[in-house]
Amino acid sequence: MKETSVRSYSGIPMLLLQLAAMAVFGFLIVKGALNDQAAIIIAAVLAELVLLVLLCGFYMVEPNQAAVLSLFGKYVGTSKEQGLRWANPFFSAKKVSLRTRNFESSKLKVNDLDGSPIEIASVVVWQVVDSAEAVYNVDDYESFVHIQSEAALRAMATSYPYDQHQEGQVALRSHASEIAKHLTEEIQERLAQAGVQVMEARISHLAYAPEIAQAMLQRQQASAIIAARTRIVEGAVSMVEMALSELSKRNVVDLDPERRAAMVSNLLVVLCGERGTQPIVNTGSIY
């Protein structure tokens, strides 16, 4: 079922023409009654009835709206011309909005690629591009969009981990653009048969499920502490190496291996400690 255009007529001229015709036939009915002309009265009444039936052919089309016309259950075509229109009075017109719409899905509880329960929700921006498919291919296209979007979100969420565990791995929290692109494609594939185009789909809510949120927060804090400590140790070792090299190069002091080890230990304590150190000044010989 594909959308096709159907010809319709401007409603204002047709309305004026029909009102004028009704006035003329009304005058003939009055004149026939005064002159006792039954044939004229019957003809004029039948004409008025026909005009009343023709009045049923008017319908209104707003901007960014389409009227899907059918005749006794058979699809005739779609009219997108704005304003008051007139077509066959036996046509049935169903209005379909072509405006851009959006909705936010409910918070879904799913398992990510690692099996961890997470809460996820998305915002989907969409519009109808084929009115015939939207009306005739699915029962209720708006409900279809909502249900299939949530199903696509569930399928997408199970394909990625919440956090990035390896270099270059795509994760829900760290790769927003890639995830949004995948989600858009996943939803579009499911909604293609409904004549709907998905313009954008993005995650609006992402969090661990309440039952594991505290444990995952501790894991994230531990990872952050380990990363920070690793950086501090790397810097401290470089600084100790530089200090020993400069002392040796400038012949400031000659240290035996035992004293070098003690100096390295003291420097690492000073550089890696979380609190400020209180040095003890040795006024005597270092030996």
Topology:
Elements lengths: L8 E2 H24 L3 H17 L3 E4 L3 E7 L2 E6 L3 E4 L4 E7 L3 E4 L3 E4 L5 E12 L2 H6 L4 H17 L18 H16 L4 E13 L1 H40 L7 H16 L15
Antiparallel strand pairs: 1-5, 2-5, 3-4, 3-6, 7-9, 8-9, 9-10
Helix pairs in contact: 1-2, 4-5, 6-7
Write a structural description.
By secondary structure, this protein is of the alpha+beta class. The protein folds into three domains: 9-94, no CATH class; 101-208, Band 7 domain (Tetrahydropterin Synthase, Chain A, 2-Layer Sandwich); 213-272. It is 47% helix and 22% strand. The chain contains seven helices and ten strands. It has helices spanning 11-34, 38-54, 131-136, 141-157, 176-191, 210-249, 257-272; strands at 9-10, 58-61, 65-71, 74-79, 83-86, 91-97, 101-104, 108-111, 117-128, 196-208. The strands form three sheets. Strands 7, 8, 9 and 10 form a four-stranded antiparallel β-sheet that branches. It has a three-stranded antiparallel β-sheet with strand order 1-5-2, with helices on one face. A three-stranded antiparallel β-sheet has the order 4-3-6. Strand 3 (65-71) and strand 4 (74-79) form a beta hairpin. The longest helix has 40 residues, at 210-249.
